Amino acid sequence: MEFLTGFAGSLIPFLLILTVLVFVHEMGHYWVARRNGVRVEVFSVGFGPELFGWNDKHDTRWKVSAIPLGGYVKMYGDADPASATSEGLEEMTPDQKAVSFHYKSVAQRIAIVAAGPAANFIFAIVVLAGLFMVVGQRYAPATIDEVMPESAAAAAGLEAGDRVLEIAGTEVTRFGDLQIVVRENPGTALPMIVRRGDAELNLTITPKEIVTEDRFGNTLRFGQLGVRSNNVAMIKHGPLDALWSATVETYSMTAQTLRAVGQMITGSRGTEELGGPIKIAQMSGEVAKQGWDTTFWFMAVLSVNLGLINLFPIPVLDGGHLVFYTAEAIRGRPLNERFREYASVAGLSLVIALMVFVTWNDIVSNSFIQKIGAIFG
C-alpha cells in the first residue's frame, strides 16, 4: 500500500512534466513544418483514443489522447503518425503536393525532423538560464579544502589547498568538473595536474569504487576521491551570462549521457542505472516535493535526454529519419520504400524491447517489489 500511495502521488507531477516536454518536442516539428508550407493534420499529446481536441483555422486537429506517454505530429501525406510510410503520393494534385511533407526538399525535411530534438535542447537552455538568473548557479572553485584520511586522494598525495587544473585530459574550472570525471571512472588510474603554491604537479589518482543504492533501490557504482570543497556558492547571472552558462551546462549533460551510453555498450558500465517510466515517475514525485526550482532543473535534464534519445539513429525515431534523408541527399534519390518499411519495423521492435527492458529494471529494483519477492522466495 505504501508503494501504491507513493506512486499515485508521483503520477500527477510525472504526467505534467512529460506533457510539457512532449508538447515542446512536437511544437518544434510543427513550427518548422508550418514555416516550410507543410499542412499539419494532427498535433497530438499522447497516443490512442482522443480524449478531447479542437480544429484550428489551418484545419489542424489539436488533441489530447488517452495514453500520455508521448505524442506526434501527423503531416499531410503521412500514412502513420511516425511518418514512416506515406500514402496516395502519386495521385496528389499540384496543390496537394505543395503542402505535403514528402514533396518538400531533403533539406526542408531534415530541418522539420531535427526541429523536435532541437526544441528540447533549446527548452532546457531557456529553463536553466531562468534558474541561473532567479535562483543562481551552484559554483565551487576546483580547490581542495579537505582531504579525507585513507582516501584515494590521500594515497595519490593530494593536499588541502591544491588547485586541480586538469584530470584525464579534461580541463577543470570548477569542483563539479572534477566530480563528473571521477564519478565516471571508478578504479581507473587517471592523470591529474594540480597547482600547489607556484608549482604545477603531475599526479596519478585512482578513484575508489563505491557501490551503493539510491532512494529507489537502484544499485549505483561510481568513483570517489575523498576530497571536499567548502566554498560552495549560488551565483546569480545576468541574462547573457545565464544563457551562456545554460548552454555550457546543456552541452555537459549531453556529453555525460553519451559517455554513459558508450560505457554501457562497451560493457564497462552496468545497465542497472537505466530507468523507465516507473522510475521517472518516482523521481518526478520526489523532485516536486523539493520545490519548483528542483522540479524545473529535473525538467531540463529530462528535456536534454528526450532530445538526445530522439537523435539516436534508430528508424521510427527522429534520428532514423535523419539517416534516411541524409542517405537520400548523398544518393540523389530516396532509399527503397520496402527497405524503409522493414527498417521501421525493426526500429519499432528495438524501441519496444528497450522499453520492456527499462521497465523491468524499474520493477526489479523497486524496494517494494523486492520485499514481496523476499516473502515468496
Strand order of the largest sheet: 6-5-7-8
Strand content: 15-25%
Helix and strand sequence: HEEHHEEHEEHEEEEEEHHHHHH
Helix content: 40-55%
- Give the number of DSSP strands: 12
What oligomeric arrangement do these chains adopt? single chain
The radius of gyration computed from the alpha-carbon positions, rounded to a whole number of angstroms, is 24 Å
Which key terms come to mind for this protein?
377 residues, alpha+beta, 52% helix, 20% strand, disordered N terminus, disordered C terminus
Textual characterization of the structure:
With 377 residues, this protein is of the alpha+beta class. The chain contains 11 helices and 12 strands. It has helices at residues 2-35, 94-98, 106-134, 152-156, 175-183, 239-266, 277-290, 292-310, 318-331, 337-365, 367-376; strands spanning 40-55, 61-75, 137-139, 146-147, 163-167, 170-171, 190-196, 199-205, 208-213, 219-224, 227-228, 233-235. The strands form 5 sheets. It has a 4-stranded antiparallel β-sheet with strand order 6-5-7-8. A two-stranded antiparallel ribbon has the order 1-2. A hairpin with a 2-residue loop joins strand 5 and strand 6. Helix 3 (106-134) crosses helix 6. It is elongated and about 75 Å long. It starts with a helix and ends with a helix. Mean pLDDT is 82; it is low at 1-5 and 368-377.
Brief digest:
By secondary structure, the chain is α+β, with helices and mostly antiparallel strands.
Summarize the helices and strands and which ones pair or pack.
Blueprint lengths: L1 H34 L4 E16 L5 E15 L18 H5 L7 H29 L2 E3 L6 E2 L4 H5 L6 E5 L2 E2 L3 H9 L6 E7 L2 E7 L2 E6 L5 E6 L2 E2 L4 E3 L3 H28 L10 H14 L1 H19 L7 H14 L5 H29 L1 H10 L1
Antiparallel strand pairs: 1-2, 3-12, 4-11, 5-6, 5-7, 7-8, 9-10
Helix pairs in contact: 1-3, 1-7, 3-6, 3-8, 3-9, 6-8, 7-8
